[in-house]
Amino acid sequence: MHEFKRNELESKIRVAAVSYLNTKPLIYGFEKGMMADEVELLKDYPSSIAQMLKDDEVDVALLPVALLPELKEHYIITDYCIGSEGEVASVCLFSDVPLKEIKTILLDYQSRSSVGLLKILLKDFWQINVELIPSFPGYEEGINGTTAGLVIGDRAFIQRKKRKFIYDLGNTWKEMTGLPFLFAAWIANKKLSEKFVQKFNDATAEGFKHLPEIIEAASYPYYDLNVYYNKNISFTLDKEKIKGLNEYLKRLNFITNI
To answer: Is the pTM of this model over 0.85?
Structure first.
């Protein structure tokens, strides 16, 4: 495999990340100027950056894992990720009625990984049949009566204040499989030099030295970020999360092809 090296480039390596609260520690180092001469950081929502990586518009992305099978090649390049060991808090099914009374679910347009996870849980764990409807910006207002909604990211915290029933997908996955869930990881679509990868890993790690500063700067009123960063989100990419990823991809492939 040909290695993609810095001296072959006329421009910076293009890196894309989601612009959610859960990415702030992961991109802190880059925003503070680390690798500024080597990296161009772009921000968008998950499904958008996934398409950018697939189309080779960026070289590295904090990629929703549902997209991995669609890449011609991929490389996990850091020891950090967005995962959960149980309750994740920001990926939930919200409803005004109990689960068994839900007839329709509005699907979050921003994340294919979470939509895939919901479909797996509906089939393999909850075992209920409902109508799934792709959505659009502002769809959260349509959550009413027997119409529920899958909401992810920062918008999920607002829904936590509004909805009577909250079904946390990270917690439900752990209950079903006994495994953690890997929502996104730093993925390159080409082989990068070992030197670059090490520097990138170090830059990604920098934010975890500054969590109190990140929390204070966010000044977020809807959820306790100390709890979110230290309990809900598990940022370490370990062997158990890889097991969880493989289990997810196996079940997702079955769901996709039935």
So the answer is: yes
Q: What is the pLDDT of residues 153-178, one digit of tens each?
A: 999 999 999 999 999 999 999 999 99
% of the chain beyond a pLDDT of 90: 83
Q: Is 127 left (phi over 0), alpha (psi -120 to 50) or beta?
A: left
Domain ranges within the chain, ordered by starting residue: 6-81+182-233
Q: CA-to-CA distance for 32 and 57, rounded, in angstroms?
A: 24
CATH of domain 6-81+182-233: 3.40.190.10
Question: Among positive and negative, which fits the CA dihedral 103, 107, 112, 118?
Answer: negative
In the structure encoding, which two tokens stand for residue 227, read together? 């709890």
Contact status, residue 139 vs residue 149, Cβ threshold 8 Å: yes
What is the spatial distance between Cα 242 and Cα 138, in angstroms, rounded to a whole number? Answer: 34
Distance CA 223, CA 156 (A): 10
Q: Residue 96: is it exposed, middle or buried by C-beta count within 10 angstroms (0-12/13-18/19+)?
A: middle
